[in-house]
Amino acid sequence: MQRAPLHPIPPGSTIGVFGSGQLGRMLALEARRMGYRLHTLSPERNSPTGQIADREVVAAYDDRDAVLEFAQGVDVVTFEFENVPALVSELANARGVPVRPSGRVLHAAQDRLREKTILSQAGLPVTPYRPVETAADLQDAVDQIGFPAILKTSAFGYDGKGQLLLESEKHLDAARQIADGQSCVLEAFVEFSSELSLVAARGTDGSFAAYPLVENRHKNHILDLTIAPAHVDSELVQAAKYLARQLFEFLDVVGVLCIEYFLMPDNSGTQDATDSEKSSVDRFLINEIAPRPHNSGHWTIEGAATSQFEQQLRAVCGLKLGSTEQLRPAVMLNLLGDLWNDGEPNWSALFKYPEVSLHLYGKRKPRRGRKMGHLTATGPSTEVALVTGLAARAALQGAE
Ligand code: AMP
To answer: Quick one: pLDDT at residue 276?
Structure first.
């Protein structure tokens, strides 16, 4: 639905960001380029966002006074991290500061059980699941879902954290311990053919723009690399965009949101065109949603006309959305803390690859599995970009 645009928030204004990780950092870099000021609030000092921001407020998200004072000093509030208490958006709203996306969108994405319930209400496809509110619900859930299944905690789950794969009865005891005292969901373990994601944005005027559908490859449940665009039929791309649009409208999202999909194998056989459109939609299951820019959208900085961070800025400031056109094939590769196991990576070897851009997030402690930065390789095709990107990442570990 198109609406009259609300008052745009022009360059020179101040963006307030809750959260202070790399997503806020890349938003801050774009904001500065475009002449905006940016303030960040989180419990961390000298954070990835704070190093770039005009102001870094160090406070707990539930510190009422700090949140109120912060909201008073900004023109719009947004998030780079969804696990922020509802209080934050309520207080900012009470001060008359627009909160984009709204607290309702954040609330939907904060808890896996709530997220799946809302997606199902919106008529969107999710992996078969059962709530496990107490350890006593587990047996019932297993009886309905069967093995293999994955138990996931409802709150604070990302990158495979708080998850247990249940292959048989022998894993029930370990599962009961996780489910004891916290809400969980039991999901069917699905044999997907690939993992895809779609980053899209919706403006204050209701306009909608999606980036190309991309393919994600994980290692140890953490995103390892993203291939943009995904090599899938155009009907599948249309189906992914159709589902995304339904979700944006249902939740009335203003901002950037990423949908992670499991693409299921094609069991449809030969069909006519109408059936094949329908069966394209049927091949998607939504794994999760993130109401902010996403790791799988980092390639847009080099590979698209408008980066996902500029798009977030445009959406939350009530500007017209930028073009989501892809300029060149791209592959994004994460740099995890493990890369520092044997000391500082070999940076000079990396710069021998002119098609590869380096992004580091300013984190001082390289822990195992911690996202320290990423590379984006571009090329004439995704195949070439992938080979280049992998070689460049491997070179970082090589001796001089
Ligand atoms: P999540 O934290 O839910 O994004 O899960 C991390 C990764 O675990 C996903 O990207 C998948 O590779 C895998 N995974 C999660 N849920 C399932 C499932 N129901 N079936 C198969 N693989 C899954």
So the answer is: 62
Q: Please tell me the class of the 194-395 domain.
A: alpha beta
Q: H or E stretch including 346? A: none
* Residue 198 exposure: Cα atoms within 13 Å on the Cβ side: 28
In the chain, what are the domain boundaries? 14-99, 128-188, 194-395
Least confident of 32-41, 91-100, 240-249, 306-315: 91-100
The binding-site residues of ligand 1, defined as CB within 6 angstroms of any ligand atom, are 127, 150, 157-160, 187, 189-190, 195, 218, 221, 287-288
> What's the DSSP call for residue 220?
T
* Architecture per CATH, 128-188: 2-Layer Sandwich (3.30)
Query: Which residue puts its alpha carbon closest to atom 13 of ligand 1?
Result: 221
Confidence of residue 362 (pLDDT cuts 50, 70, 90): very high
Which residue puts its alpha carbon closest to atom 19 of ligand 1?
A: 189
Probe residue for ligand 1, chosen from 115, 150, 285 as the CB with the greatest number of ligand atoms within 8 Å: 150
- Secondary element (H or E) of residue 40: strand 37-42
Q: Using CA atoms, how far apart are residues 363 and 307, in angstroms rounded to an integer?
A: 22
- Among residues 381, 214, 376, which one has the least CA distance to residue 303? 376
May I ask the CATH architecture of the domain 14-99?
3-Layer(aba) Sandwich (3.40)
Residues in the chain: 400
Q: In what order do the strands lie in the sheet with 14-18?
A: 55-58, 37-42, 14-18, 76-79
By C-alpha distance, which of 87, 55, 88, 61 is closest to 73? 55
pLDDT, one tens digit per residue, over 184-203 is: 999 999 999 999 999 999 99
Q: What does the CA dihedral 368, 110, 225, 175 come to, rounded to 10 degrees?
A: 60
pLDDT at 161 (0 to 100): 65
pLDDT at residue 4 tops 80? no
Q: What is the mean pLDDT of residues 263-270?
A: 81
| Digit-coded pLDDT (tens) for 63-113 | 999 999 999 999 999 999 988 888 899 999 888 999 999 999 999 999 999
